[in-house]
Amino acid sequence: MIHAITCEQLFQDNKIIPVIVLNDVNKAVSIARALLLGGISIMEVTLRTPNALAIIKTIAQEVPEMIVGAGTVLNDEQYHRAVDHDAKFIVSPGLTGKLAAVHLTYDIPFLPGAVTPSEIMQALLLGFKYLKFFPSESYNGCSTLKSLAAPFSEVKFCPTGGINLDNMQKYLSLPNVVGVGCSFLVTDELVKQNNFNQITVAAQQALSAIL
């Protein structure tokens, strides 16, 4: 069994999780180091590109200070492969019985997605109290999360989807929100331009916005 931190520990020091969609392995280390320079030591690499797993492994090996995880994990095979490639945490937009079962194989944080009361109840039944809320803005995130706080007081959420510099603090001020996932820190344009300095600046601005 692989021993690592819990979801609670993960969010104690990390309120902003950059969500990265990347296929160029050669740029992975530069992005990770740029985020670190900006004060962010966690990143989620989504399994939406052919080289995502190789990128996770590269960052884990070359930038060990960075807590790199795998996102958009949809099935148990992807879960196993992500851990084999040194992912330090796993994120999924939803939750299945197979994902819940494979989670028990590894002692690393798993953040499954849930939006509706029934999905949240099912997640609780399976032992999950830390959940991804996606796509947040599409579900009127702040208002919905406020409404969910009373019936599900023990559940903590990490909303993702439409989170930006302007609404981050609004989300993080909610008592049931422990962190946010966001894609605006590492945009396709910045990556194409090799503008890693701006990624550092964006990370610093995001951290300043929630202090």
What this model shows, in words?
The protein has helices spanning 7-12, 28-37, 52-62, 76-84, 97-103, 117-125, 141-149, 168-172, 188-192, 196-209; strands at 16-20, 42-46, 67-71, 90-91, 110-111, 130-133, 156-159, 180-182. Helix 2 runs parallel beside helix 10. The chain is built from 10 helices and 8 strands. It is globular, with a radius of gyration of 16 Å. The protein is of the alpha/beta class and 211 residues long. Helix content is 40%, strand content 14%. The chain has one domain (15-209): TIM Barrel, CATH 3.20.20.70. The strands form 3 sheets. Strands 3-2-1-8 form a 4-stranded parallel β-sheet. Strands 4-5 form a two-stranded parallel sheet. The protein has a two-stranded parallel sheet with strand order 6-7.
Short description:
This protein is of the alpha/beta class and 211 residues long. The chain has helices spanning 7-12, 28-37, 52-62, 76-84, 97-103, 117-125, 141-149, 168-172, 188-192, 196-209, and strands at residues 16-20, 42-46, 67-71, 90-91, 110-111, 130-133, 156-159, 180-182. The N and C termini lie far apart (37 Å).
How would you summarize the topology of this molecule?
Blueprint: H1 7-12, E1 16-20, H2 28-37, E2 42-46, H3 52-62, E3 67-71, H4 76-84, E4 90-91, H5 97-103, E5 110-111, H6 117-125, E6 130-133, H7 141-149, E7 156-159, H8 168-172, E8 180-182, H9 188-192, H10 196-209
Parallel strand pairs: 1-2, 1-8, 2-3, 4-5, 6-7
